[in-house]
Design goal:
The complex is a heterotrimer of chains A (about 475), B (about 130) and C (about 450). Chain A has about 475 residues and is α/β, with parallel strands linked by helices. Helices cover about 35% and strands about 10% of the residues of chain A. In chain A, the strands form 2 sheets. Chain A has a 7-stranded mixed sheet with strand order 1-7-6-5-4-2-3, sandwiched between helices. In chain A, strands 8-9-11-10 form a 4-stranded antiparallel sheet, covered by helices on one side. In chain A, α11 packs across α12. Chain A starts with about 45 loop residues before the first helix and ends in an 11-residue tail after the last helix. Chain B starts with 7 loop residues before the first strand and ends with a helix. Chain B is built from 4 helices and 9 strands; from the N terminus they run βββαβββββααβα. A 6-stranded antiparallel sheet of chain B has the order 1-2-3-9-8-5. In chain B, strands 4-6-7 form a 3-stranded antiparallel sheet. Chain C has 2 domains: about 100 residues, Aspartate Aminotransferase, domain 1, CATH 3.90.1150; about 260 residues, Type I PLP-dependent aspartate aminotransferase-like (Major domain) (Aspartate Aminotransferase, domain 2, 3-Layer(aba) Sandwich). The chains are: A alpha/beta (about 475), B alpha+beta (about 130), C alpha/beta (about 450). Chains in contact: A-B, A-C, B-C. At the A-C interface, α1, α2, α3, α4 and α5 of A face α1, α2, α3, α4 and α5 of C.
Amino acid sequence: MKLLFEKSAVGRGSTILPECDVPEYIFSSELSRQKAVPLPELSENDVSRHYSELERRAYGVNNGFYPLGSCTMKYNPKINEKTAALSGFTDVHPLQPESTVRGALEVLSTAEKLLCEITGMDAMTLQPAAGAHGEFTGMLLIKKYHELRGEGKKRTKVIVPDSAHGTNPATAVMGGMTVVSIPSGEDGCVDLEMLRAAVGEDTAGLMLTNPNTLGIFDKNILEITKIVHEAGGLAYYDGANLNAIMGVVRPGDMGFDCVHLNLHKTFSTPHGGGGPGGGAVGCKAFLSPYLPEPQISPFSGQGPVNEDCPQSVGKVKAFYGNFLVIVRALTYILTLGREGIPDAAKHAVLSANYLKKRLSEKYTMAFGGTCMHEFVMTLERESKERGVSAMDIAKSLLDRGIHPPTMYFPLIVHEALMAEPTETESKETLDEAADLFLAVYDEAMADPEKAHLRPLSAAIRRPDEVEAARNPRLRWKPAEL
Amino acid sequence: MNTPKNLKYSKTHEWVDVIDESNVKIGLTDFAQKKLGKLVFVNLPIVGDELEAGQAFGDVESVKAVSDVISPVDGTVTEVNEELLDSPGMINDNPYEAWLVKARVGAAVNGLMSAEDYGEFCAKEE
Amino acid sequence: MGHYLSITEEQRKEMLEAIGLDSLDGMYAGAPSDLVLKRELDLPSGRSELGVLREMEALASKNRVFPTVFRGAGAYRHYIPAVVSSVSAKETFLTSYTPYQSEISQGILQAIFEYQTMICQLTGMDVSNASVYDGATAAAEALTMCRDRKRAKALVSSCANPEVIKVMRTYCWAANAEMLLIPEKDGLTDKEALRAMLDGSVACVYIAQPNFYGLIEDAPTIGQIAHENGARFIMGVNPIAAALLKTPGECGADIAVGEGQPLGMPLSFGGPYLGFMASTGAMMRKLPGRIVGETSDSEGNRAFVLTLQAREQHIRREKASSNICSNEALCALTAAVYMAVMGPGGIRSAAQQCASKAHYMAKLISDIPGFGLRFSGEFFHEFVTECPVDTGKLMATLEENGILGGLPLPDGGILWCTTEMNTKDEIDALVRLVREGKRV
C-alpha cells in the first residue's frame, strides 16, 4: 500500500479555508522558513480513501475478541463517544473563567468523588494522561511526603516485585529513586521474607499491583502493606488490574496510601491505537496536599478550583488532564453505577476462569487454582520439546482472526502468554475462541515449521525487526534527500 | 561452542585478552552472543571511564531485550570499538574478534577462568 | 443498572459449574474475607443509556461555548476540517490497542509513520517519535534527553508558557536535577543573561517559539550561544507558526517539541492534546516513547513495526530514561489527517491568516488610548496590550457579547490571540466594544 507522500501530485489540494479578509502580513525573509512545509499535496478524496484503506489493515476490539492480558480490552460503549462529542465539552477553552465552565469542573469533581469511593481513597487528581503518567504522579506524592519529613535524602529506595510491569521500575527512577527488585515466591506472590529483608530506613515505598501480573490475588496483602508502613515507607497500588476487584475489594482497604487507575482499561475508554488514556491518581487524606495543582477535589475545601496549593508537587501536565477521556469514564461509571461496577468485575473473573478451564485441556497454566481477571500460560515445555514458542502460537492465532494474548510478560514466566477476556464477551465467543486456541495448539505441535512462518493470511508476513533496529528508517524521504 | 584457549573468561560471559601486563581487550563470548540473539545496538563507555570488576560498563540490545556487559577487571577505558556502533552484528558473527573496549589495568588480572574451566561452566549452565 | 454483559443467567450457571464453583463470590475465596466488601459502593444507581445521556447533557449545558474566541495561551481554536473528524472517529482506529502485533496493525503503524514524517517536514528535524502526552511533558522529556553524567542543569526561558514551565519544574525536581529560568528582557529571552548563565554544567537551553507573549525569539542566535558553550538547544514550537517561521531545524535545534493541539484537536477543556518530539539523527536513541520504523517482511514486502524498543520501559525497566507506555496515538493520527488534508498550501494559509489577523487587530486595539502594545518585538498570532480599566470588567462586557477576550495577565495586561477562525467583522466588533466599553 502506498504512503500518502507517494500519492502526492503538484497542484492537488482542498479549499478548506476562505480567503484572508484582512491585509496579508508578511514576515521578513530572515524570520521565515526557506521553503513551504513539504507536506504531500492530496485531494480530500485521496485522504479519505487512504485512511479507509488503513482502517481495513487494523484490528480493534470493535472487530473481535481481544484477550490481551494486562490491557483490559473491554467493549468501548458508543454512548461514551456521544457524550465526549457534546459541544459543551469539546468547545470550551481550559482558561475560561470558572463561572463559564461549571459543568466541566463538575465532571472532574464528580469523577474524582466516584473514583475515591471505588478505590477507598480520600482525594484524587485526574491530571495524568496515562497509567505510567499516573504512576509517576504517585511516586511524586511519596517523594514529597518523605522530603517534607526531612527524610528525602535518606528514603530513596523503591521496592518492586520482579513480576511488575516495566513502567514500575522506570517510574521509580524518574522520581529520582533506585529500584530494589524482590523475587516472587514459588506461588507467584510477594515473598514476605524477602520483603522483610528488603525494607529498612532507606525505603521510600513499595509499588504493587493486586491481583498481580500472574492474575493471582495475594492473600498476604494486609501483612505486606503493614511491613512497608512499619519500616516507614508508603504503599503504592498499580491499578492496572483493578478490573478484577472493583466494587468487591478496595485498594484503600488493603492498606495502600496512593493508587493510580487506567481509565482506558478498567473504565472502558477506547485505546485509540496507543492513547490517549487517563491515569487518575488517588490518595489518602494525609497525601492530598501534595496532589498536582490546581485541585478540584472537594477535599481541598476552597471552592471549585483551588490554585493555592503550596505543598503541591507541581504539575504533571498542562491544564486539567485528558478531559474528554474523563468524560467517557464518567459516562461509564454512571451507567454501571453501584450495582454494575462490582458486577463487571465478577464477570471478568468468571470469564477468565472459564477460559482458563477450557484452555487447560492442552495448555500448561503457570499457576493452578482460581485466577482473577487474567491468567498466564507457558509454552516452555513445548518450546524445548518441539520448538513451538509463545510467538508461534500468537502468530497462528492471527491467522484465525483473533488478537493473541500478551506475549512474553510477565518476565518471570518463560514463553508466557497472558490472556484477559474481560466481562463483555459472550460465552459463545469464549467457547469459539477456546476452540481456536486448542486447534492452533494441535496444529503448531504437529507442524512447528509451518507455525514459525505464521501469520500467512495477514497484510504482511513476520517483519524483520532486527533490520528495523539495526538500520532505523523512521520517516519517508523523497528520492533526492 | 567456540572457546579460544588464549583468552580468559568471566562467569558473566565476557572474555579478556591480556595484551600485556598493563593492557587488556574485553569482549563477549560465543555463548553470550548465542543467548542474546541478533544484536541491534551496543552502548559503550567513553575513553577515560573507570571500570570496576563486577560492575556493568555498558549494555547490548537485541530487538526484545537489553543485557548489561559486566567488567571482568578494574581499570580505565583506553579505546572503544566504534565499528560496533554501526555494525553490532559483528559480535554475533565474530565474537572473539569484535572486542568492545580496550583498557589499562593496574594490577594483574586474576579471578577469571581458563578456556577449559569456562567450557565446563557453560555446560553446567545449559 | 446499565451494563455491557453478554453472559446470560443460564450461561453464568453453566460457566460456574464448569469451574466447580457455586457462586460468583466464591471466586474471591483467595482474598481475606475482611477485605471483601459487605456493603454496596456509595455510588448512584446505574443508568440507562438515555438517562446517562441526559445527565451528561445537563453537565455540558453548564459550560458556556463562546461564539467568538480571542484567547490562546497554550490552547488554540482552529478550524477542524470535516474529514479530520470523520477519520479520527473510525471505530477500528478508536478501539485498537498499541500495534505490538504488527502483522494485523499495519494500518495504525503506517498512519503513525506518516505522522512522524510530517512532524519532521514541519519542524525540519530528522526523526520524530510517535507522540507524548502534551507540549508541556514533551518539553520536560526533552530536558531529560539532554541530561548526562557531566551536564545536568537545564536553562529554561522565563518567557515560555507558565504551564509548561511548571511541568518542567516538576519533572526536574522529580529527577533531582537543577532547572534555572533565563530572565526576560522586553518580553524576549535575555541573551546576555543567558550567556552569563552558561557553563560546563549546563546540559540544555529551552526557548518557546513564539513565546508566551506571542513574540518571535531570536532562535538562531540563542542556539548558537548554547552550542558555543557545549549545551544542547531545545525549541518548543507552535506547529501552525512552524508553517511560516524559520524551523527548529533551520535554527540549529537539537530537539524540537511542542503542543500539537492546533493540528485538528478541539479545545476540549485542556485535553486530550498531543505532545510532539523531534530531534537530530544524533539524538534519535534518546527520544522517549514509541517510534515506528520501516522494514520488510519475510517476502520482501514493505512492513512497519514499532522499533528501537530497547529504549523503552517494557524492556529497559529501571534503565529506561522515561516510563512512558501509552501515548496520544489517536491524536497523532488526527494531526496527520489534518496535515494531509491541509497540505502545504492549506497550513501556510492558516498560519498566514493567524498572523495577518493578529497584526490587523493589534494595530486597531493599540490605537485605543491606554491599550498600547506592551512589547515592540515582532509577533506571530498573539500579542500583549496594556489595559487602562479593570480587566475583569472588560472581560465581562465582552462575555455579555459572546466574546471570550484575551487572557488577563496577573500584572493587568491582556494576552490577545487571533486565528483563522476570527473574521474581520468579529475583530472590528471587538475593537468597537473595547473602545466604547459598552454594548454596541
